[in-house]
Amino acid sequence: MHIQRTTYLSFWDVELGNLPTGVFRQRDLSTAEARDILRGARISKSLICVSRKDLGAPYETRARQRHEELCALLREHADIEMQLRDFFGELCVNPLCLAKVTNQSRLLVVDCHYVRDHQESSDAGPPESDVGGEPIERLRSLLRMKLAPESLRFHILEKIPDTWPSSTNGGADIAAQPAERDRSGQALQQLAQLSQDLGLGY
């Protein structure tokens, strides 16, 4: 019987607790590949959207806004249906720590960069008043940012199944320990590279 894998979705973030013990891989997806995976997971009801921030908390206004902006960008530029409500479970937001990369589940991370919103800056109206010689509206325009559609990236983390057999005698167990250390080192190297790849989303 075919078992449908759970697909976790995160915007920007991944943490150590999401990763498996052992070997895993990170692949970059095309927009079409990501769209197919997310549509299939939604149809099969195996999609779980997670967030590092508590999007329901009153003090996380900016985090909610960022998620809403990326949802809108996915709908408009990638033809991927996504809403802020997808990140909420029955009682609260699905936390990022819920996502575990296993043989039965994978984690898809969406990354996108912010850039200066020059259009908003040029459309700014007359200054309200001056602060230190600078119009308030001018200062605000310098802080206006927007998501850059061309920077949209999709990354998927998947566990690589164990392929070497387990042993039942002490000698074979000892011989297997260096291989286990090699796997741990490889996982740490992958995490370091992944942190560099996904560290530009803010």
Give the secondary structure arrangement, pairings included:
Blueprint: E1 6-11, E2 24-29, H1 31-43, E3 47-50, H2 61-77, E4 105-111, E5 114-116, H3 118-122, E6 130-131, E7 134-135, H4 136-142, E8 145-147, E9 153-159, H5 170-198
Please sum up the structure shown.
This protein has 202 residues and is an alpha/beta fold. It contains five helices and nine strands.
Structural notes for this entry:
By secondary structure, the protein is of the alpha/beta class. It has a domain at 6-112 and 149-163: Uncharacterised protein PF08960, DUF1874 (Rossmann fold, 3-Layer(aba) Sandwich), CATH 3.40.50.11170. 35% of the residues lie in helices and 20% in strands. It has 5 helices and 9 strands; from the N terminus they run E-E-H-E-H-E-E-H-E-E-H-E-E-H. The protein has helices spanning 31-43, 61-77, 118-122, 136-142, 170-198; strands at 6-11, 24-29, 47-50, 105-111, 114-116, 130-131, 134-135, 145-147, 153-159. It has a 5-stranded mixed β-sheet, with helices on both faces.
